[in-house]
Amino acid sequence: MNSSSFQISSRTVLVADASVVINLNATGRAIDIIRAQPGSVVVIDHTFAELAKGAQKGYKDAEKLQALIDYGAVRLVRLGEAGNRIYESLVEGSAQHTLDDGEAATVGYAHEIGGVALIDERKAQNICKTKFPNLVVAFTIDLLLHNTVLEALGQQGQIDAIVSALRDARMRVPQHQVSMVIEMIGEEVAATCSSLPKIDPMTRK
User: Fold this and answer.
1) pLDDT along the chain (205 residues), means of 10
2) In sequence order, which ranges of 54-205 are alpha helices (DSSP H)?
3) pTM of this prediction?
């Protein structure tokens, strides 16, 4: 069953934010997940720079992303004029209405090319709904729940990838998908994933 809320075709361009790259790296199956997509996965140069800063603290996500780029699984891209205008509008102003560099650039590029912005932060999701209602925005979990991933990894492989992202990267799952994910991975396993919100056993919400 396709549990995702967005469609992926051969023309779909998925623009992954830093949090999404971190989640995919944590699955241990990033290259398989990405290569399973009929479209393409890109990362904006701002996001790469953001991840590279983490190397100073011992994080290896930039190194792993570079490997995906070298494999040809991910393409590194830059903002064009249209995307840069959106980027600038999202980094200038009050903190309540702005995003960090990587998020703003991800949104700007996705809007510029008509792609899908893969971004997990609630604030970014809300800003996109308000400012760019026609932009398709999805979470990491939407990608991991997609039929393309199920077909590539198998049911247990898909579950293992989701659990690894939850445990090792503290992947965010939006409230409307929490119950589905818990049912999928099992309540005992879910209890070990601290980033997964708890649900009311009476209402299952």
Assistant:
1) 66 96 97 94 96 90 96 97 95 84 96 96 92 94 94 96 97 93 94 82 48
2) 61-71, 81-91, 101-113, 122-131, 140-144, 147-169, 175-185, 187-190
3) 0.92
